[in-house]
Specification:
Layout: H1 6-11, H2 18-30, E1 36-41, H3 48-60, E2 65-70, H4 78-84, H5 94-110, E3 114-116, E4 120-122, H6 125-129, E5 140-141, E6 151-153, E7 156-160, H7 164-172, E8 178-183, H8 186-194, E9 203-204, H9 205-212, H10 216-219, H11 221-229, E10 233-235, E11 239-242, H12 244-248, H13 250-258
Parallel strand pairs: 1-2
Antiparallel strand pairs: 2-4, 3-4, 5-6, 6-7, 7-8, 9-11, 10-11
Helix pairs in contact: 3-5
């Protein structure tokens, strides 16, 4: 979906109109299907008013879920080259991006949606109780599609082959289309447990100690102390969880642990 705004859809070379996309959503709802769409904020030339309009439209359509992502411009893509040539404006600064997220958070929350997982706002119980990320990082996710990189099972994570034709050939031959596989170390798993904060899940301190023989504070003393002092996390005897402020900066919080030196 990305946006309902036709001006922005043209800049992104999306072929159909926002009205057509809206009609498809309505038809799906009439068939009794759950509908969850992606919306992207901080698009080139997108104002906060434009973003607010997108969020309000999603709420008006009574969608079961909306995934809201900040724009990432990857080097060498058509959009990257258009920005460099001055054909479309660059995304706004990080402050505007943060304000856009806060705007979405307030609008969705006031409409009865709750934030779950990576970037989703939902109004249905299933998205909260049956989310595939609830077991991170100990459970598992089976990912399908060429190039998909989010598959994991316990300590093993994998990426599918990138080439779609090779992917189809392997599936047709009954071969699991894995392109790359990685086994995480104990230190990697410690970091991944702390990265539960990114997907808005608390860290169970007792479970952490059962898995690794130490508490999170013993493994990440500086990071936890610093984030707590900034009001980004709340630490109790039982768990570590995000504060309301921390929810806004949860990607940065995850990076703190991803780049930490583990005390083992």
């Amino acid at each position: 979906m990305q946006t309902f705004n036709n001006e922005l859809r043209r800049k992104l070379a999306i072929q159909d109109s926002g009205e057509h996309a809206e009609e498809i959503i309505k038809r799906a709802r009439e068939l009794g299907l759950y509908v969850c769409i992606d919306l992207i904020y901080n698009l080139p030339g997108q104002t906060i008013d434009m973003w607010r309009s997108d969020v309000k439209k999603a709420i008006e359509l009574n969608l079961e879920g909306v995934d809201c992502y900040p724009l990432e411009v990857y080097p060498g893509t058509i959009l990257d080259m258009q920005i460099k040539r001055g054909e479309v404006p660059p995304p706004a600064d990080w402050k505007t991006e943060a304000l856009m997220y806060i705007e979405a958070l307030e609008l969705f929350t006031n409409a009865g949606y709750v934030p779950v997982g990576h970037d989703r706002f939902t109004r249905v119980r299933e998205h909260v109780e049956e989310s595939c990320v609830n077991g991170w990082p100990w459970a598992g996710i089976l990912t399908t599609g060429a190039g998909c990189f989010m598959g994991y099972l316990d300590r093993y994570s994998y990426q599918n082959v990138d080439n779609p034709y090779e992917y189809i050939r392997r599936v047709g031959d009954g071969i699991f289309p894995i392109g790359k596989i990685h086994k995480s170390t104990v230190e990697d798993m410690m970091k991944k447990v702390m990265e539960r904060l990114y997907i808005r899940l608390p860290i169970d301190k007792e479970e952490f100690k059962e898995k690794f023989g130490k508490t999170p504070e013993e493994v990440f003393p500086e990071e936890i102390k610093r984030l707590k002092a900034k009001g980004l996390i709340e630490v109790t005897d039982k768990e570590i969880r995000l504060t309301k402020l921390g929810d806004i900066w949860r990607i940065n919080i995850a990076w703190e642990f991803a780049n930490a030196r583990v005390k083992v």
